[in-house]
Amino acid sequence: MHPPPAGRLLLAFSGGPDSVGLAAGLRESDPLLAYVDHRLRGRRASRDERACVRAVAGRLGLDLVRVRVSLPDGSEAAARAERYRALAALGFKYGCCGIATAHTADDRAETLLFNLLRGSGLRGLAAPRPCTRIGRVLRLRPALDERRAGLRSLAEAYGFVEDSTNRSTAYSRSRVRHLLLPALERLLGEDPVPLLCSLADAADRLRTSLERRAAALAPDAGRREFLREPNATFAYLVEALRPPGPPLTARAYDSLRAFLEAGRTGRAHRTPGGEKWRLSKRGALRVTGPSG
Prior knowledge:
Radius of gyration: 21 Å
Structural class: alpha/beta
CATH superfamily of the largest domain: HUPs
Helix content: 40-55%
CATH class of the largest domain: Alpha Beta
Distance between the termini: 41 Å
Largest sheet: 6 strands, mixed
Number of helices: 11
Number of domains: 2
Order of helices and strands: EHEHEHEHHEEHHHHHHEEE
C-alpha cells in the first residue's frame, strides 16, 4: 500500500470488503472511519447496514462517524458528488490530513476502460491517481496498487457488508466490471488488469510531463501562446492557469478557445464553475475565481 501521510486520515467506510480491507491494512495509523448513509435501499435495509457497519468498526477497534446525505436523484454521479462533499466536511471538522478511499488496481482498470468508452483523453486514461487535491482537500487512494481480492482477504477476519448492487449490471461501470473485463480475459487468455494499469502508468507519466511544461509556460502565457497550442496540450495550459478544481469538459475547452480566437477584450468569458477569463488589449490573460 502507499504509505499514508503524517496525521490522521479520514477513511471512507461503507462496510464493504474493500473499505474493511483497507481499514485493516491501515489500523496501525488509527484512521477515523466515515460512513456516509445515503438510505438508497429502504429504511429497514439501511438500518441493518448501519448496525453491521458499527459492528465491523468495533471489531477493527477504530472510531466511526456517520453522516446522512439526501440525494437530488438516484444517479451514481449524484451519490458520488454528495458523498465527497460530506467526506470533505467531516475531514475538515475532525482535522484530518486527507480523505482515503479504497480504490484498487481493479478499480483503476475499470475506470480506464469506462473513460475510454466515453471518448476520454489523456486525463481519463491516467486516472485515478494515488493522491490528488480538490480545493483544500487531499484525496488519497492508498490501495491503488493492490488487488480487490487482496483487500477482501484482509477483511474476512472482521466481516463485511455484501452490497447486492455491486453484482448488478444496471449501471455502466458495473457492466465494465462484470461483462467487459471477463470478456477481455477470455479473449487475451490472461488477466487484463495489470496490462491496463501499465497503460495507465504510461499515460500518467505523459500527463505529468505535460502538466509541468504547462506550469512553466502559464505565468507568461497570453492569447497568442494559448492559441499556438494544439488541442492535445491546450487543456493543460488552461488548467495550469485556473484556480484548483476539477478539469473542464471538452466542450468548455472548445468554448474558451473560441473566446480567445475572437479576441474580444470587453465582456469576460465564464467557464463552468464561475471562473472569469478576461483578455487585455495586449492579449494578456487574467483569470479570477467565482467570487472574483
